[in-house]
Write a structure and sequence with these properties.
This protein is of the alpha/beta class. The protein has 3 helices and 8 strands.
Length: about 120
């Protein structure tokens, strides 16, 4: 029986770990967590923010997915969008999900990211 979602893994180009650290820790405000040594040898990096865990894995033939993405729930979505914009990250608002405010963005590897917050009447 499934109990919870443990993590989401996104692919990144080999050698882009420092750029991803700057984005996921510096821009998104996540905390890097150490990878076990045997896995660290493969490259990539892992991050968390509260119960949210994102793993970034280096992939030799990297290509960002066109539609696949994590949906990251935030609080204070307007301020969060402003934070991303201030750091040069794209923010594209989308009103197609009833009961939520949401926008899409992309990390430096062009991985699609969705940020959403329930509206007060649906929280």
């Amino acid at each position: 029986m499934l109990a919870a979602l443990d993590h989401v893994q996104l692919a990144i180009p080999p050698g882009s770990e420092d750029t991803m650290r700057a984005y996921y820790a510096g821009v998104l405000g996540m905390t890097e967590i150490p990878k076990p040594p045997v896995l660290a040898a493969r490259g990539g990096c892992w991050f968390r923010a509260g119960p949210v865990h994102l793993h970034l894995g280096a992939e030799e033939d990297f290509r960002p997915a066109g539609q696949a993405h994590p949906g990251l729930r935030v609080t204070g979505i307007e301020a969060y969008a402003a934070r991303l914009t201030a750091h040069g990250a794209p923010v594209t608002w989308d009103d197609d999900l009833p009961g939520h405010r949401r926008f899409f963005s992309a990390d430096p590897a062009d991985n699609r990211l969705e940020f959403l917050e329930p509206t007060p009447d649906t929280a």
